[in-house]
From TrEMBL:
Stated family: Belongs to the gamma-glutamyltransferase family.
Listed name of the protein: Glutathione hydrolase proenzyme
Post-translational modification: Cleaved by autocatalysis into a large and a small subunit.
NCBIfam families documented for this protein: g_glut_trans (TIGR00066)
Natural source organism: Actinacidiphila rubida
Signal peptide: 1-48
InterPro entries tied to this protein: GGT_bact (IPR051792), GGT_lsub (IPR043138), GGT_peptidase (IPR000101), GGT_ssub_C (IPR043137), Ntn_hydrolases_N (IPR029055)
Organismal lineage: Bacteria, Bacillati, Actinomycetota, Actinomycetes, Kitasatosporales
EC nos: 2.3.2.2, 3.4.19.13
Reactions that this protein is recorded to catalyse: an N-terminal (5-L-glutamyl)-[peptide] + an alpha-amino acid = 5-L-glutamyl amino acid + an N-terminal L-alpha-aminoacyl-[peptide]; glutathione + H2O = L-cysteinylglycine + L-glutamate; an S-substituted glutathione + H2O = an S-substituted L-cysteinylglycine + L-glutamate
Subunit structure as annotated in this protein's UniProt entry: This enzyme consists of two polypeptide chains, which are synthesized in precursor form from a single polypeptide.
Length: 632
């Protein structure tokens, strides 16, 4: 990653840009990618990963066609794909080149990530799919979140009157929700795709069969999970060849997953929700296959065949807010991503972020996150079980009422009490404050566009890095630990918690794939992994691109901060080591260091009709952006 094409955008991001912001845009537009990457020096890397790791090379047996090296920026025609992985991005581009649309390519990319990023995604998990239909000029979503077994109660993670230790809950059958990823793929293809599931699974099936080259990030993530993986023979057989993490540069094959994809392609997702594959999942959850020599106590789960058979995705309208003349769409509850991003934008719309100093921009950004997370914690859960005031949370009136809490020279105290979206009162609160509960921090995100103008932003996950650590024997994939996204017990017994477990309930998510329209047409789309930091990452990319004038690739690369209604704000090292930290501390902010926050990807429609695909230059080893053709 030694060069960057000049940013081709020439039109302003919002009406009437100031000369100060215009100068920033011009400077950013002529920056080279090396400068963008250099701005992240010291910004940290994925947990236990090596910064600046060499890009993953193609595995030898790939029909003589080498996978391109990772590049975080691509501009051209015919469609675009951005993901964390070069093999996965290439799978999506392959489908686009063969005439598939954005939905087909998104499923192909996601399936390939299930091979090369199996600790973050796969058919053992779930996610949220946001789609812009260019023919109907409409945004729709698929809620493919995992569900709790129908036997689950609010005591799911309580033993002897006390909540389980988080680590004990994660590595257990009890944490595993009914997977939604395969159903999401089929739902999206049935509604908007142009190819069969079997056809779009072929690239991923080939990668699983022929193998991919292990990079430093994959090696390090395996090593971080080695103590868990070794306790499950099926997991160890897949990811600890010879009893050790696969070496960097070695080729890792997963013939079990290749056969599973082949079966799904031939028989459809009924094989998972009604067939032998599902029976294997249920058996694994109810009787986790633990090494007899292991000393780990692994609790069983209570998933049944009926739980699988009754699973259904939800095709629903997105959340929406207008911001600086643009229309911003995200996933509706059960995810809190769309409502929380929208509320924070509505709060920030009351501040001129374009001409604010960098310290004042960050101050207002952090305070908006603090406020929005206070409201998220009180009001957002699975709408099948909770009265979620989505319209109120995303309303301009509520945003204005909450915005008045922010002062230029003072910091709010967390935990902050929520507001009342049904009766927005300036600076008003409703009920007692409660701290934000913990949420795992690893997912994966992809963005896709096609030559017809359709766009997909899709975030999928198995929750923690490595999920539950329990692989389904003979099937080649890990099962999720998504049920640990529930609150184990209320954060404050005096405050209603909408995110306690329940029968068939979806745990609250922070996933926030976002599509932004300008005059009814796609402007750009973005999303990120990172648990609860997904929301703040997406919000920061949106505001740095729209308000601060950074090109999308630079907004994705910029150092991050995350405030989630906590006493301390998390900072990446580049901000921790900058003078901005002192300026913000002088106002009253407190900080802790986080080596890496998020790993975003995005696409953008340029004024001349080209697509721009953007990914991380450094985080998680760097992402992979590609277009179908650099020329018409």
């Amino acid at each position: 990653m030694t060069s960057q094409k000049p940013d081709p955008r020439t039109s302003p991001r919002i009406p009437h840009p100031s000369p100060h912001r215009a100068r920033r845009r011009l400077a950013a537009a002529v920056a080279v990618l090396a400068a963008a990457a250099a701005s992240l020096t010291g910004a940290g890397t994925v947990t236990a990963a090596t910064p600046g790791a060499a890009p993953r090379a193609a595995a030898p047996a790939r029909g003589g066609t080498a996978t391109p090296a990772k590049s975080p920026l691509a501009v051209g025609y015919g469609g675009a794909v951005a993901s964390v992985d070069a093999d996965a991005t290439a799978a999506g581009i392959e489908v686009l080149r063969r005439g598939g649309n954005a939905v087909d390519a998104a499923v192909a990319t996601a399936a390939a990530l299930g091979v090369t990023e199996p600790y973050s995604s796969g058919i053992g998990g779930g996610g949220y799919f946001v789609y812009y239909d260019a023919h109907r000029h409409q945004v729709l979503t698929v809620d493919g979140r995992e569900t709790a077994p129908h036997s689950a109660t609010d005591q799911l993670f309580v033993e002897n009157g006390k909540p389980l230790a988080f680590a004990d809950a994660v590595t257990s059958g009890r944490s595993i929700g009914v997977p939604g990823t395969a159903a999401t793929w089929q739902t999206a293809l049935d509604h908007w795709g142009s190819r069969s599931l079997g056809e779009v699974l072929k690239p991923a099936e080939r990668i699983a069969r022929d193998g991919f080259t292990v990079d430093a990030t994959f090696n390090a993530q395996t090593a971080a999970n080695q103590d868990r993986f070794k306790d499950f023979p099926a997991t160890a057989a897949l990811f600890l060849p010879g009893g050790r993490p696969p070496a960097v540069g070695s080729v890792l094959r997963n013939p079990e997953l290749a056969r599973t994809y082949q079966e799904l392609g031939a028989r459809g997702v009924g094989a998972l929700y009604h067939g032998d594959l599902g029976a294997d999942i249920v058996r694994t959850v109810r009787t986790p296959p633990v090494d007899p020599a292991a000393t780990r106590v692994v609790r069983t789960g209570d998933m049944t065949a009926a739980d699988l058979a009754s699973y259904a995705t939800k095709v629903q309208d997105p959340t929406h807010t207008a911001y600086r003349g643009l229309d911003v769409y995200g996933p509706a509850p059960s995810s809190s991503g769309g409502t929380t991003v929208a509320e924070a934008l509505n709060i920030l719309e009351h501040t001129d972020l374009a001409d604010a100093s960098q310290a004042q921009y960050l101050h207002h950004f952090l305070e908006a996150g603090r406020i929005a997370f206070a409201d998220r914690g009180r009001w957002v859960g699975d709408p099948a079980f909770e009265q979620v005031p989505t319209a109120g949370l995303t309303s301009k009136a509520f945003g204005a009422a909450r915005a008045c809490l922010i002062k230029d020279d003072a910091v709010l105290t967390s935990p902050l009490a929520p507001g009342d979206p049904a009766h927005p009162a300036p600076c008003g609160t409703s009920g007692a404050a409660a701290p934000t509960t913990y949420e795992g921090d690893n997912t994966t995100h992809l963005t896709v566009a096609d030559k017809w103008g359709n766009v997909v932003a899709y975030t999928l996950t198995i929750e923690q890095t490595g999920g539950s650590a329990i692989a389904v024997p003979g099937r080649g994939f890990l099962l999720n630990n998504e049920l640990t996204d529930f609150s184990f017990v209320p954060a404050d017994p005096a405050v209603h918690d909408p995110n306690l477990p329940g029968p068939g309930k979806r745990p609250r998510s922070s996933i926030a794939p976002t599509i932004v329209l300008k005059d009814g047409r796609p402007d750009f789309a973005v999303g990120s992994p990172g648990g609860a930091t997904i929301i703040t990452t997406v919000l920061q990319v949106l505001t740095e691109h729209i308000d601060r004038g950074l090109p999308l690739v630079d907004a994705i690369a910029a150092p991050r901060a995350s405030q989630r209604n906590a006493a301390a704000t998390e900072l990446e090292p580049a901000l921790w080591d900058s003078p901005l930290k002192g300026e913000l501390e002088a106002i009253g902010h407190h900080f802790t260091q986080n080596p890496e926050i998020g790993a975003a990807t995005g696409i953008e429609r340029l004024p001349d009709g080209r697509w721009l695909a953007a990914a991380e230059p450094v985080r998680r080893g760097g992402g992979s952006a590609a277009v179908v053709s650099p020329a018409p």
